[in-house]
Write a structure and sequence with these properties.
The structure holds 2 protein chains of 2 kinds. By secondary structure, chain A is of the alpha+beta class. Chain A has 11 helices and 14 strands. Chain B folds into 2 domains: 197 residues, Roll (Ubiquitin-like (UB roll)); 59 residues, no CATH class. The chains are: A alpha+beta, B alpha+beta.
Chain lengths: 295, 277
């Protein structure tokens, strides 16, 4: 239960870090940030990198920029900071999801960039990024900066489009319109454990308090977050109280590939309940916000 | 590969050579002699190794020693000096029977200290806040009672804010957002970091408190183990003597008859020991 032999590099700036990543291309390299997912894998020897690049000294990656349209979150912003102000009111769905990650001591260390680059299929933050249509900023010494939509960033279990010499530096998230209702539901065997199944939903209001846009993402049911928003499109143009959320959730879960084993089948059952509840929570909040503005 | 790191442990500056793969927990226990921090699962599940790193709880088995270079670490040994609630919390744990074997206790004390900084605490919040720590003996009742008791008596006790670990995230204006989701002009961005880089351990002005009670002091350890052996031998001899007396006089298995003289209202036939047989 101890990590295997490894060389630890601790660059002092992003440029130095990118140089290290480029120079170590021959070796198996992992970037370590908070280490709250990677360290257990190292201890269990499921990950055996030659070189660990610790970005704990790159304080330039701890930043939050707020614009009228979007929010930029630095890669080293920690989970507990996602659950606190100002992000709590800027991106409530992100705050609620981040509050379900592990326990206090985990959230004190874990970072948003680390969670996204790790790409655990059962993790909350990748699903939030897919839900919000975020763009993920990747930098390398050779190719400079590129932005990858979250829907394309996650390619499989623990797999992303990050190149060997690339560093995830920030995420850019569109701010939800006022009155947007969100729902987050996850089922896990114990509090703070990995999710067995989970769902995230947002409903954005349009004219006449009708739904202008609806999104639904399921996680922990496949090898990456699954965007099933096309099955919620029937709700667009309707009032939330008119919608049959149970059958919408049913259609969304039915669109997943056929279960390969009983574990997956059980996850689907949980996902069905999670999707239904997430949509209902989103509808309740949608209504609540609208009522508040109407007064 | 070994590297030399300097950090502050319970207020005392330390400099130690550690292999790159060594965790902070192992460095604290094996290299720095702070064996109060316990290692249970070594994969971040049990919470026994919880310490304060720069004023916030962290699993020391999920932090590499190299990552803690320049950090201010507080272990259970330095808890009483780190916060005014530290000593009160330890006393409350003892008073409320919040420990049996005591293996999980260092982690619980550190986690509870962070919890005590909160304004509002009720049982549900305490149970939620301590859910990352496992105890296999007590059933948690005494632990929750102890934390609530200290909070009731002292009110919220904030932890010393070291290196801005608990300060809110600074916000800056996003420069020139273009069409699409985001600003693509990364060059003219104004960035605000939370906390400056530290190469030297911060001087918090606290004296070194546990330097004198390292477990590696050989004379003290020998004296302690000698006393323990003498105590065990004494107990064994006393037990043999009492057994031999009992057999000779054919006394049934309950305390000596002199006790019945002291408690005349309880007849020997109804004593609890008799009934159990």
């Amino acid at each position: 239960m101890k990590p295997g032999p490894v060389t630890l590099r601790r660059p002092a700036s992003v440029e130095e870090c990118l140089d290290v990543l480029r120079s170590e291309r021959e070796a198996v390299v992992k970037v370590i940030s908070g280490g709250q997912s990677l360290m257990p894998l190292l201890a269990l020897r499921m990950a055996n990198p030659d070189v660990l690049v610790d970005i704990g000294r790159l304080d330039e990656l701890i930043h939050l920029e707020v614009g009228p349209e979007a929010v930029t979150i630095g890669a080293r912003v920690r989970h507990h900071q996602l659950t606190e102000e100002p992000l709590r009111s800027l991106l409530p769905v992100l705050a609620e999801a981040a509050g379900h990650i592990g326990h206090t001591a985990i959230r004190n260390r874990g970072t948003i960039g680390g969670s996204l680059a790790h790409a655990d299929p059962a993790a909350e933050l990748p699903a939030v990024m897919v839900l919000l249509g975020a763009e993920i900023e990747c930098r390398s010494a050779s190719a400079g900066t590129r932005l990858v939509p979250a829907a394309e960033f996650f390619t499989g279990p623990y797999l992303t489009t990050l190149a060997d010499d690339e560093l995830l530096t920030a995420v850019h998230v569109r701010r939800p319109g006022s009155g947007t209702g969100h729902g987050f539901v996850e089922f896990s065997p114990r509090h703070g454990d990995y999710a067995r199944a989970g769902a995230l939903a947002t409903l954005s209001p349009g004219p006449g308090s009708r739904i202008a846009a609806a999104r639904l993402v399921l996680f922990a049911v496949a090898n990456r977050p699954v965007d099933v928003s096309e099955h919620v499109e029937v709700a667009v143009g309707a009032r939330p109280e008119e919608c049959d959320w149970a059958s919408i959730a049913q259609a969304a879960v039915a669109s997943l590939p056929a279960p390969i084993d009983t574990d997956r089948a059980n996850r689907y059952r949980l996902a069905l309940a999670a999707a239904r509840r997430a949509l209902r929570h989103a509808a309740d909040r949608f209504a609540a916000t609208r009522g508040h503005h109407g007064q | 590969m070994d590297s030399e790191i300097s950090l502050r442990v319970n207020g005392a500056p330390e400099r130690v050579a550690v292999p790159d793969r060594m965790t902070l927990a192992d460095a604290l226990r094996d290299r720095l002699g702070r064996t109060g921090t316990k290692l249970g699962c070594e994969q971040g599940v049990c919470g026994a190794c919880t310490v304060l790193v720069d004023g916030a709880t962290a699993r020391s088995c999920l932090v590499l020693a190299g990552q803690a270079a320049g950090a201010d670490v507080v272990t259970v040994e330095g808890l009483a000096d780190a916060s005014p609630a530290g000593r009160a919390l330890q006393a409350a744990f003892a008073r409320n029977d919040a420990l049996q074997c005591g293996f999980c206790t260092p982690g619980f004390l550190v986690a509870a200290l962070e919890l005590l900084a909160e304004e509002q605490l009720d049982e549900a919040r305490v149970r939620d806040g301590l859910s990352g720590n496992l105890c296999r003996c007590t059933g948690y009742g005494g632990i929750v009672r102890a934390v609530l008791e200290v909070h009731e008596r002292l009110g919220p006790v904030p932890l010393p804010d070291i290196a801005g670990a608990r300060s809110p995230l600074a916000v800056s204006e996003q420069a020139s957002p273009v069409a699409g989701v985001v600003s693509r002009s990364a060059a003219n961005r104004v960035r605000t970091g939370a906390g400056q880089e530290q190469t030297e351990p911060p001087d918090t002005g606290r004296p070194s408190t546990d330097a004198g009670r390292r477990p590696t002091d050989p004379g003290r350890a020998l004296a302690r183990s000698g006393a323990a052996v003498a105590a065990v031998v004494a107990c064994y001899v006393a037990w043999r003597w009492w057994r031999s007396r009992r057999r000779l006089r054919d006394v049934p298995l309950h305390p000596p008859h002199v006790l019945w003289v002291c408690v005349p209202t309880v007849p020997p036939a109804q004593s609890s020991i008799e009934r159990r047989r």
